[in-house]
Design brief:
Layout (H helix, E strand, L loop, with lengths): L3 E2 L9 E2 L1 H31 L10 H5 L5 H11 L2 H26 L5 H10 L5 H7 L10 H14 L2 H16 L1 H14 L17 H13 L5 E5 L4 E2 L5 E2 L4 E5 H5 L18 H4 L20 H18 E5 L6 E3 L3 E3 L5 E5 L2
Antiparallel strand pairs: 1-2, 3-6, 4-5, 7-10, 8-9
The structure holds protoporphyrin IX containing FE.
Protoporphyrin IX containing FE binds next to helix 7, helix 8 and helix 13.
Length: 350
């Protein structure tokens, strides 16, 4: 058998057989993979540490949800100082947004910006981040990276937990009301019956009326943003003569507005037919304000409704959702969550 010399590698002046060489290559491959796995594991742990974690000694059971709630949450507050966790969480958020901005910056042209923007606007693919990256003020100065990041952060995070909360509560209501769930599923099946692959197109969104009614009723009962605030800039006289004086900060309860029995009879009952086009005619548009109202309302509401419709339609097409054994308890924070998470059971449809 021929001998191969490894001396050219400068490692050692030995002659190796092809088997030895193969072994060396195999060992290097294994080492490279072990290093890559270790790094990926370390990286994951580093990222996940920003979120409340179960106690380390009960890590496995905690993640399976098999620890009592107080044990699951206490360690996260006891062992990490809030400031430290806050800074880590901010860093994680900023690193993520920075990466998105840098990636997008690489693909943008330095010349012919106006043509580029017009072409994108025409093909309906103009993204907000492109507009930010390419915009200039009156003096021709571009936005700083920090300004862009602040705007991008607002969009990413105004749009994330809110939609997650909205989706979770709709699925919860559909799980509790299998008859509505089935009707939504039939609507989606009918819409996509001759279609392969089963994907939702932009124009389909207007053809899911019952699903939309179910979503709206869920946003009424469980508005993802339960409270909003406003700084009063002028005296406001209420119909009964009382005055909200200029200069104070008002809290407006979206949740309360959506549960007003004078407008919503049996407010705690989940009834999608409240949003039947026939039934909304007489109601004030300000009776239903999950996305707020007025000039500072939610800029992403059309996107949010579209996103939720797509997720729900494709989920219902593939799965049946069933309620969990324990009833969730509302946990109003900045976003309306459920204590200990909102748990549902999911069955694949054959
Ligand atoms: C179900 C999902 C969503 C709900 C319930 C929701 C709700 C709201 C509400 C109530 C406000 C107004 C806050 C106020 O009046 O003080 C708001 C503002 C805002 N939302 Fe949403 N939102 C959702 C999804 C999104 C998405 C997907 C985006 C972006 C892609 C987004 C971006 C924004 C932004 C940028 C503002 C601030 C607007 C301003 O201050 O002028 N939201 N949202």
């Amino acid at each position: 058998m021929s001998q191969l010399s490894l001396s050219w590698l400068g490692l050692w002046p030995v002659a190796a057989s092809p088997w030895l060489l193969l072994l060396l290559v195999g060992a290097s491959w294994l080492l490279a993979h072990v290093l890559a796995w270790t790094y990926a594991f370390y990286d994951n742990c580093r990222r996940l540490r920003c979120f409340p974690q179960p106690p380390r000694r009960n890590w496995f059971w905690g993640h399976q949800g098999m620890l009592p709630l107080h044990q699951r949450t206490s360690s996260s507050t006891a062992s990490w100082s809030p400031g430290w966790r806050f800074r880590r969480a901010c860093r994680l958020v900023h690193d993520f947004t920075d990466a998105v901005i840098q990636e997008r910056r690489r693909t943008l042209p330095s010349q012919g910006v106006d043509d580029f923007l017009q072409a994108k606007a025409k093909s309906k693919t103009l993204d907000f981040i492109d507009v930010l990256l390419l915009s200039k003020d009156e003096d021709g100065k571009k936005l700083s990276d920090e300004d862009i990041r602040a705007e991008a952060d607002t969009f990413m995070f105004e749009g994330h937990d809110t939609t997650a909360s909205g989706l979770s509560w709709v699925l919860y209501h559909l799980a509790k009301h299998p008859e509505y769930q089935e009707r939504c599923r039939q609507e989606v099946q009918e819409l996509l019956k001759d279609r392969e692959p089963k994907e939702i197109e932009w124009d389909d969104l207007a053809h899911l009326p019952f699903l939309t009614m179910c979503m709206k009723e869920s946003l009424r009962l469980h508005p993802p943003v339960p409270v909003i605030s406003r700084h009063v800039t002028q005296d406001i006289v209420l119909p009964d003569g009382r005055v909200i004086p200029k200069g104070i900060i008002c809290l407006i309860s979206v949740f309360g507005t959506h549960h007003n029995p004078a407008v919503w009879p049996d407010p705690e009952v989940y009834d999608p037919f409240r949003f039947d086009p026939e039934n909304i005619k007489e109601r004030s548009p300000l009776a239903f304000i999950p996305f707020s109202a007025g000039p500072r309302n939610c800029i992403g509401q059309t996107f949010a409704m579209a996103e939720m419709k797509v997720v729900l339609a494709l989920t219902l097409l593939r799965f049946r959702v069933l309620p969990d054994h324990t009833e969730p308890r509302r946990k109003p924070e900045l976003v309306l969550r459920a204590e200990g998470g909102l748990w549902l059971r999911v069955e694949p449809l054959s």
